[in-house]
Recover the amino acids of this structure.
């Protein structure tokens, strides 16, 4: 019984941090949400079907992989460089801490543009590739939020309804 409370408490922590991880690039959001589901599954009272656990493991792996590719694709599609991608990630973190909540949107774009300008691109090219980096980042973030949001919903639905 005590172990169940520990697993539930850890599951809640992993779930909340997983949602935050969808917005912060240095925290792997969906994998943490998945661990939260597993922790709840390992309690004696709350059980998910094995098929459910396997499907969410696959979804988590696919989304995690796609999230690694989308920002690079967006940046390359719009003529960007690695500095644009890095600038976008650094801009996100800076925006999150210094200009919440709008910094999460403005930061990646501004960071990507600054990154591109630092690589010697003119302002027109920098804005274009910065926009591509931002679109890639935004697409990945939305995808992660959808998946993590669904896992969070299943976690709390199981915890509170059953």
């Amino acid at each position: 019984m005590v172990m169940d409370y520990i697993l539930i408490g850890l599951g809640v922590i992993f779930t909340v941090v997983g949602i935050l991880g969808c917005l912060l690039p240095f925290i792997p959001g969906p994998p943490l949400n998945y661990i939260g589901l597993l922790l709840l599954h390992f309690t004696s009272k709350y059980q998910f079907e094995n098929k459910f656990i396997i499907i969410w493991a696959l979804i988590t792996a696919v989304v995690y992989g796609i999230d690694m590719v989308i920002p690079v694709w967006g940046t390359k599609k719009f003529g960007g460089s690695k500095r644009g991608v890095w600038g976008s990630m650094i801009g996100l973190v800076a925006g999150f801490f210094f200009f919440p909540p709008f910094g999460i949107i403005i930061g990646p774009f501004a960071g990507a543009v600054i990154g591109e300008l630092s690589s010697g691109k003119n302002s027109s090219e920098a804005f274009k590739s910065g926009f591509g980096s931002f679109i890639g980042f935004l697409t990945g973030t939305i995808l992660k939020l959808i998946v993590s949001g669904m896992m969070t919903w299943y976690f709390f639905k199981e915890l509170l309804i059953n």
